[in-house]
Amino acid sequence: MSDDELNGQIALVTGSGAGNGEAIAKQLSQMGVKVVVNDVDEDKARSTAEDIEDAGGEALVTVGDATKQSDVKQVAERVKEEFGQVDILVNNVGLFEAIKFTDMELEDWNKYMALNLDSMYMYTYEFLPGMIERGCGRIINISSDAGKSGYSELVAYSAAKHGVVGFTRGLAKEVAGNGINVNAVCPGYIKTDMHWAFLDQWAEAAGKSRDQIEEEAIGGIPLKEFGKPEYVAAVVGFLASPATEWMTGQSINISGGLETH
Ligand SMILES: NC(=O)c1ccc[n+]([C@@H]2O[C@H](COP(=O)([O-])OP(=O)(O)OC[C@H]3O[C@@H](n4cnc5c(N)ncnc54)[C@H](O)[C@@H]3O)[C@@H](O)[C@H]2O)c1
Question: Considering the entire predicted model, what is its pTM?
Fold first, then answer.
């Protein structure tokens, strides 16, 4: 992907104060995009935006909880005031934690659905009409290898991330005549704060050491290492680029070969 390929376009990346979202925001900035950095944690959002600006890019910080409709609407209003539109929406925010199904109360279930699915619905609802009006746009949803296969202790997460894939497939067909492409990315184990926290929870649930769990997890990956957020960001950059003009409704794995369908 060449620099400045998407010069002047505007992207919003949810949960871009850290991890995959941060890497995605930086990747898009390198491609010439003005990035709306969005996070519930203002310090993290500012830190990503400062890095982008230090590298010569343009970023707007928006703070809000992606599971609260009032916050989402406020963020959307601010973005429309500042930039007028969003050309590339990356629904990145999500949550996974190791939890046994029998320990999962309804409020836990709702928490996973809210962060992985409601946020995606609400941000898409805010920005899709503008894309339809302009006859162009890209929506990129971050699913997971758990969006293609089910995982023990990750039942709600697997259900939600399969939902992200289903949403992507359905919406892609609904807006195919409007110049809008909708695709998803399905990362495997990626070294972010949530990943390390998850390995700790998994070790505790399995009564094993963290090292043992790490060894087992890496052992199951054909390419034998955990991935970096930059790998996910590169796929998002590709999906945002003109190279994927004829590609919609797809869910692309980036998992060191862990997921192959
Ligand atoms: N890390 C992995 O191994 C992995 C694998 C597959 C999929 N994913 C997906 O990638 C996405 C990002 O995960 P990550 O690992 O980068 O997480 P992370 O914890 O490293 O970063 C998440 C960011 O989202 C922000 N955030 C949390 N709750 C929020 C809310 N309610 N509103 C707005 N922002 C909020 C956090 O402050 C943080 O900056 C998620 O959808 C996750 O399911 C991650």
Answer: 0.98
